[in-house]
Amino acid sequence: MDLLQSSYAPGDASSPEDESLSSPDTSPLRLPSKSAAPAVDETALALSAAATSTSRPIDPSLHLIPFNPTADQLWAPVLGPQHPHAPISSASGHRNHKLGHVEDAALLPFLFDEQYNTFHRFGYASDPSGLHIIGDAQPQAPDLDTVYNLPPSEHKRRRIRSREENHEPLPPEAQNPASDEWVMHNKKSPWAGNREGPPVELTDEQRQYAEAHAAKKAEKEARGEGKEKTEVVVKSTFHGKEEKDYQGRSWITPPKDAKATNERCYIPKRCVHEWVGHTKGVSAIRFSPKYGHLLLSASMDCKIKIWDVLESKTCMRTYMGHSKAVRDISFSNDGSKFLSAGYDRNIQYWDTETGQVISTFSTGKVPYVVKLNPDEDKQHILLAGMSDKKIVQWDMKSGQITQEYDQHLGAVNTITFVDNNRRFVTSSDDKSLRVWEFGIPVVIKYISEPHMHSMPSIAVHPNSNWLAAQSLDNQILIYSTKERFQLNKKKRFAGHIVAGYACQVSFSPDGRFVMSGDGEGSCWFWDWKSCRRFKTLKCHNGVCIGCEWHPLETSKVATCGWDGVIKYWD
Where is this region: Disordered (predicted)? Predict the structure, then answer.
């Protein structure tokens, strides 16, 4: 028994103990079977099995393939049972669709719709790689035209061409010469050339009409009506009693007793006079320098008028020399002459007393602002901001352009002299401020910020240390006139509505108040120190475009508006 038990391995599953445990039935003891046949190599058997299975597709659920499959087997589709007598061809092996082999490609929905609609509309499309054109039709241009990058007119033209090629009848709309369909059908390129064929003879009625039209045109050209009239008759009318008094003094001579009544300025409260004479809106007003005994006004009715302020308060003289609206006016230092700029593209230098035009200047562009150099020895130098982004400087003695300041990117709106007239500041529609040395066309300071707006009006404080700039975002900004021209962030005057209007801003003679018109016809007054609104006067029915403080009468203000009225306030 010991010999029998030792013949079994301890973990052998065929041991009698395991058999007794695994089966309830007792069984006789069996010895392990041993084969006396030699070992057989199974490699040939596997090769023969592989040879027999080369004609069958591979089961995709297999994790191990004991042979090298062919390409046909790898590309064969997963189908049902294979027909035993139908061999698998190479073409069918590469197919994964009933129409061939389909590959996945990442394509945006817009691009797919574009090529899909192009294929159904024009008969061709581009494959996802963009290298090949698919379809029987071919594009006419080297660039691929799709339904999305062609204009509607080209679609109509192609539709008409295809209809003509297919000899399809035109719709009834295309037979009406007044319809767009007829125009598109008969439209021809200007480079197509003239049609070849016999010239069409005019009927007698057409010939008579053509001759009458040619005669009218020749007569109009002979009279000069066909061209724009550039020459305007310059004239002036005096409305006063006499041009000289009994002592021989001119009517523009200031009174001898004219002097400031009080050094302290006060806000006006009521309207004491109205000047009515302009038939259209008044665009600018200017008091005569130093004394303010005369008030000059420019209007959109192409006229300039000068009014008496101190005594009769009537119109003294009318100046007529512009053919279009007058944009800006500016007195000389002594008030004996003044400049005017109009939309007829002319700048005229007037004699205030006689009403004669001394000289006329023009560059062919619209002048927006005109200024004389304030220095007494440079009163013959004229600066004008033009609509072509330039500031042009003339010598009025010779009539020649002596300098051009060309740095702005928009029309120039204002010219303001600072620093004892050695420099001047200009503002423009390009939303920037530029500082220039007089006579040198190089910008020494360029001020432009993303938050800045156009500034169509600028005034200098009486102490010459600050600039007040009317910004079109409904506020007045203060800049220093020192070297750096910094923005004073502590001073800002707001509350009025000036967006879209070049409303004038000015100071009181003592510098205590800031004044500005607005787009609703009101005149606003602010305190200079506290920046608080002091008072608002309802002045005009339309836009209050200009306001001037009297240089001597410390509590009197003149305003003008687009209602054609000039008002005097006290």
Answer: 1-37, 142-181, 210-231
